[in-house]
Amino acid sequence: MFRFVLVWMVFISGLWGVTIDKKVPILCYHRFGTEVVDSMTIKTSAFSEQMEWLKTNGYTVIPLDTAAAYLEGKVKAIPAKSVVITVDDGHKSVYTDLAPIVRKYKIPVTLFIYPSAISNAKYAMTWDQLHELESTKLFHVESHTYWHPNFKHEKKNLSPEEYAKFVDKQLGGAKKKLEEKMGHPIKYLAWVFGIYDDALLVDAKKAGYEMAFTIDRRHAASSANIMAEGRYMVISKHTIKDFEHMVDGSEDRMPKDKKEVIAY
Q1: For site-directed labelling of 231, which of 24, 25, 174, 247 has its Cα 20 to 30 A away?
Q2: 115 close to 126: Cβ distance less than 8 angstroms
Q3: Can you give the pTM of this predicted structure?
Q4: Is residue 18 exposed (0-12), middle (13-18) or buried (19+ Cβ within 10 Å)?
Q5: Side-chain-side CA neighbours of residue 227 (13 Å)
């Protein structure tokens, strides 16, 4: 029945010149552990349950690169029930706790990294660990700015000239550093704290990013601004039913004032 409806929609859209909005749910995680130690940590057991639910219910975890190409029309089709997994920040629990589960399910994961922390902060992974993860072909590194700033605060406190230099460092500087360290192009950006404005969207494009992602709780869509595509932040309080509503589009279809708001 689903295939019939899909074919019929494509047929009708072709007749009337209507473009069907392509959508993909993108999930956002941060830290992992056997226990919940802070608001951004999710139990590894809960993450495993979510991955098992995806497998049981016929979902396919696809690379972010594939989803982006689909949204831009460069790839014509993806599995009907596709989902993307991303992890922000580069916390060491990605290496110690998440990686074994990723290997078990053989799922692609994009890591949005801010390079200032790598091999410097005690809570973060090292460059060697990131290279090791990428060598599995399951993980891929992209950008999360240079040092995880709050753009609103910096714009308020800096002069226009200082702020322009700051933005260049956070966007272009992060991209350059990650490309030097990881040895491959950096195409995607995740907005820190989900903060962005019209000027930053333009700046990200100028810095060379092909697409950027928020934590606005909606599916990434071909009709959206490609520098502000949606993602769902997943945290410990979310039940498997909540998780289902993220990936199947139920939450996306809720009125804006009814949607959950999650802040750092």
Answers
A1: 174
A2: no
A3: 0.91
A4: exposed
A5: 16
Residue 100 identity (one-letter amino acid):
P
| Whole-angstrom distance, CA of residue 67 vs CA of residue 63 | 7
What is the CATH number assigned to the segment(s) 22-258?
A: 3.20.20.370
Output the DSSP codes for 207-231: TT-SEEE---SS-EETTS-TTSB--
Q: Residue 109 in contact with residue 141, Cβ under 8 Å?
A: no
For the chain, domain boundaries: 22-258
* Cβ proximity of 214 and 262 under 8 Å: no
Beta bridge partners of 62: none
The whole-angstrom separation of Cα 89 and Cα 75 is: 29
pLDDT by 10s per residue, the chain, length 264: 444 444 444 444 444 445 689 999 999 999 999 999 888 999 999 999 999 999 999 999 999 999 999 999 999 999 999 999 999 999 999 999 999 999 999 999 999 999 999 999 999 999 999 999 999 999 999 999 999 999 999 999 999 999 999 999 999 999 999 999 999 999 999 999 999 999 999 999 999 999 999 999 999 999 999 999 999 999 999 999 999 999 999 998 888 777 777 766
3-state secondary structure of 76: coil
Residue from 170, 138, 137 nearest 152 by CA: 170
Cα dihedral 181/24/214/33 (nearest 10): -70
Specify whether the CB–CB gap between 234 and 29 falls below 8 A.
Answer: yes
Q: Who contacts 74 (Cβ-Cβ below 8 Å, separation ≥6)?
A: none
